[in-house]
């Protein structure tokens, strides 16, 4: 068994008008991971997924799924992939059961009612199997999309914006479903505009910008290495300026002088040459500033992401 489920090498896509949507992408997706692909609108996320799924022809480069080349061994490669698009198309009057069973047939797999039942049960759709899609709630329709994509027992599942426009409760529900799939060994690649979703779900994160992968990193590592921390001291009495004795610290005033905010690198807390938190607190005391409260916060993936995209503009 190979370590990599999907191997992408030197992938380029030039659309017919001459626009280069992918500029030589190299990416390896590990078996069994949840990989979140982030990027601003038009960055190339859908193009990348579409090439891997065989919907768009690559202009150059190579893609292998479970070792099968997506061009030379299209059927083998494609049969391992499930694609969950954003919306259902044209099946409003079919039943849940028929829609999902039909999807399996499209991949030339023999009928297997037991598998379809398992998929529907795992997505809490079993009770709705005789319902026409048009009668389902938005959340149920989303589940049907996933059920369709799982009907042919794929090993990789692509989710394109799985929770776009759904409410918070349903989003959490969907996350549970996706985690459950991963726990059953399915490799998951999702695109999302919700950074929170990537922060919550992903094992690794890739950021794509203008057709280039600008970063691929373990989520934990990304948050550790790029995340700065802030310590806020709420002062008893407001100050108009930061006292000189504190000038060696990276401080700023906030809340009309009622708060001092100290930014520091969370990874180098102990070896910060400009002084650590203990030093700061001691100096604050000796400067005669009393504080009634203090709290720390770590920058979120959202801030990290915004900075990343901004930095490279
Ligand atoms: N068929 C096409 N012909 C020409 N250009 C295209 C075509 N499809 C996409 N593009 C262009 O390629 C670029 C990447 O598009 P893509 O849909 O892959 O981006 P995306 O990252 O998925 O964006 P979004 O987040 O908005 O869905 C865009 O500039 C888009 O206009």
From TrEMBL:
The keyword Lipid metabolism does not apply. It comes from Halomonas cupida. Gene3D superfamilies: P-loop containing nucleotide triphosphate hydrolases. SUPFAM superfamilies: P-loop containing nucleoside triphosphate hydrolases. Residues 6-235 form the ABC transporter domain. It comes from the Bacteria. This is ABC transporter ATP-binding protein. Keywords: ATP-binding, Nucleotide-binding, Transport.
